[in-house]
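Batch 3, record 17
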Amino acid sequence: MSDSTAATDTLLRTGNRRDFLRVSAFTAVAASTLSACAKPAADVASTALAVPVKPLTLADHIAAANVMDAMHEKGIKAFPAKTEGKGNQLMQPRLDNGVKVYELTASEVQWEVEPGRRVTAWAYNGQVPGPQIRVREGDRVRLVLKNELPESTAIHFHGLELPFDQDGVPFITQPPIKPGATYTYEFVVPNSGSHMYHSHLNAAKQVGLGLLGAFIVEPKQPRAIEKSDIDYVMVLNDGSHGYTLNGKGFPATEPIVAKLGQKVRVRFMNEGMMIHPMHLHGMHMTVIDKDGWPQPAPWKCDTLNIAPGERWDVIINCTNPGTWAFHCHILPHAETEHGMFGMVTALIVQKPNA
Amino acid sequence: MSDSTAATDTLLRTGNRRDFLRVSAFTAVAASTLSACAKPAADVASTALAVPVKPLTLADHIAAANVMDAMHEKGIKAFPAKTEGKGNQLMQPRLDNGVKVYELTASEVQWEVEPGRRVTAWAYNGQVPGPQIRVREGDRVRLVLKNELPESTAIHFHGLELPFDQDGVPFITQPPIKPGATYTYEFVVPNSGSHMYHSHLNAAKQVGLGLLGAFIVEPKQPRAIEKSDIDYVMVLNDGSHGYTLNGKGFPATEPIVAKLGQKVRVRFMNEGMMIHPMHLHGMHMTVIDKDGWPQPAPWKCDTLNIAPGERWDVIINCTNPGTWAFHCHILPHAETEHGMFGMVTALIVQKPNA
Amino acid sequence: MSDSTAATDTLLRTGNRRDFLRVSAFTAVAASTLSACAKPAADVASTALAVPVKPLTLADHIAAANVMDAMHEKGIKAFPAKTEGKGNQLMQPRLDNGVKVYELTASEVQWEVEPGRRVTAWAYNGQVPGPQIRVREGDRVRLVLKNELPESTAIHFHGLELPFDQDGVPFITQPPIKPGATYTYEFVVPNSGSHMYHSHLNAAKQVGLGLLGAFIVEPKQPRAIEKSDIDYVMVLNDGSHGYTLNGKGFPATEPIVAKLGQKVRVRFMNEGMMIHPMHLHGMHMTVIDKDGWPQPAPWKCDTLNIAPGERWDVIINCTNPGTWAFHCHILPHAETEHGMFGMVTALIVQKPNA
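Prediction for the assembled complex:
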């Protein structure tokens, strides 16, 4: 690895003009063979090709490869990269006479998706995804939403089988919550599982901008199969912030860190507009729940297709030590010529004395 | 709700020019923050922004929200909107010596997808989807197709395990049915379940234009789990008519109306080119069949991903009274800034004395 | 069929100019009614419509239909069309002290996807998909990769639960394999099932160009349900080569040929970027494995949705004689106005004396 970096550095430092032109010409040609969906870099290519160039040699290829590899390495070495803001933080409720009270404010913020890339987000309490709400079946919950957005909004509790007037669909179950207004939801949590809360007004925009969060309901009687050492929520999104896991793109995504022999539960939730088949390297996943309901029997896979609105819960037995890539297998959601990005993270399984 | 409508009405009636400009400027800015897929309203925004405007106040936001909310409310209040034509109507066969005879004519019609939006459709008997054929396992069926289209066509019975010469693939199992020609299919129905019939010639176009319908085969011995009070077919499509449920877009879609305690069977069928994860509010769905075949064990979900060509049968126990949103959870298939549209309907669960 | 062909031939031979103009005008109009996604042939249509034409008669429609049908027939009659190169060929390993040694060279080749359509491919041993590797659980395997590409690369064994240093992710588990370099993987095969090997560097491009193959691991103890007479791997792809099955588009795809009563196992593998719901005519498929792991109970379908990175194994009991269409049910992946193309093949079930 140090070799390749050194070679790239040398190439970039020495600035040998003839080499650079040859590499550029090669790169332009390579780029133009890319998928039909991408626009070929026609202007660059034609300029470069207009200059008569000798056939590329192996040394040219290595030089070009070193440039590309250095970009890939840089991204990986940066992982997990620090960014401002962290979404999906577990929220502690205020207790009011036995009622768990969650106070949320929806407002516009700047959100750092990857180092240096800030986007406009509409967020609950400044987080994308919003704060993680985690309660127990049968709990009484009050959720107070203050709307500081320039649009009306409302919250739908996706997956909870609530009384009709708590369902959060403007003009059907409630009036819209106007800018500046505050609205209170209150209910007894009826069913356990991995659920979500998100806007249900102008939702293609509002959810895309970040008005979403996990609503986890722990069961009164957990099944043996669902017991885990680590319980991890992974929210997938593909709106105007790009391809994200819990509101961040690689290398700013968060690795899951477990010890050898531990059991990790991952609760996948898709808040986007596209499917995302999540692939884990090195170990399989055992699927136990769909939308908060147990599957009739657990089943195994290494690539799990998660469609918009779906939640899937899996258990991973961490039997294989390593830093395992964990990514969407729609490859353009995970990698470009410049390296990995977007929906990529890792499951790190540490040896006892690591 | 009356408040917001009143505010909007006032705003629109009074036509206060200064307010309207400010709201327009805001709306343009808001629009430009939309997903990267949509073209930003650059010209509008730049013009608006060229006029120096004071920072928007809460009152401005509310005024803009009222305009948007009024559009959303209008769509919801119009539901279920009347349109000309109804697809998927149960067809009564003519009996000929014990053979159930279905006579279909394929022709070009104008089809009203939503109030006022008429599109060119290629339809069986003037319906999109075509008439619902519902027979019993072991029935002898004759289907006579008259082709009044300007193209050849043929019918494939998707899911039925027919003798080869009834499979409907031109140049493989039969000659194409030319414009003006009539062709007869005849077979004993071999397997039960939720199936489809549709064109299998130039099908990306012909099915997209409407040449499709449900072919339901009731079993000789229904299982206990599949008994229902209401048996509803929901055909999903996303061709040149836009996003539709049974040939109509919201608010012209048809609600499913059940009484509290009833069981509803929904037979999802995807005749489009995209997945559609259908999400039901307020209650879960129990999945019983895939492509007309029983699942090994029923399983529960609230969001069911239906891919092109697939059929999924679910049972809904109507235990929760209300008007429950029932929609594709790819949000751009269900809502715009102007309100809900496309693949949205409702399951209405009525209380005994409602 | 001979009638239609004759009519088309006559039309094309006689070259009646007035008829041809009328047919062209009709075709232009028909084309402009196509899906909103396609650009209407506006220039052609407007030119054609500028010429005052009499209303089209049935004879005009038939003439136009004959032209279109002839194109469809031509494609079908050409199936299976010969092309240069065949991918997914079973590779015999060299044995070295009990180790099965596979030597692969990655290089750029020209690949004939359909008759006459050659594309640039990056291939293992000149094949797209690369050679099929088929070993047994517990085998020791050595895979030697020589990189003759102009970029670095690496191989990930998708689905195999390997020791970390054999996982093939550059800068995480190994250095990238530079142009001109050779790299050796060696491991004991840990888990059985239908797996894949493919590039994991700049993979959106490299896999799209063809750096992929099947890695089948036969179990030590096969289950009764997985025994089959024919074991067929079907790799789906949708990268820069277009929509392909085992690297070829219809009519150059390969039919599966079975005898009546035989059992066929199909191992679907999606190496593309889109879902592909594969639909079999005439018979159902019994799903037995997901990603190389047994499903808790087999289940039946006729349309199986396969997402990128997924593998699904099915058993087909060949009980129905015929040449059965077998295709992706996203219709634009399988057919255009000019006939079937892309992800279409056939399962041919031969009668005993056929």
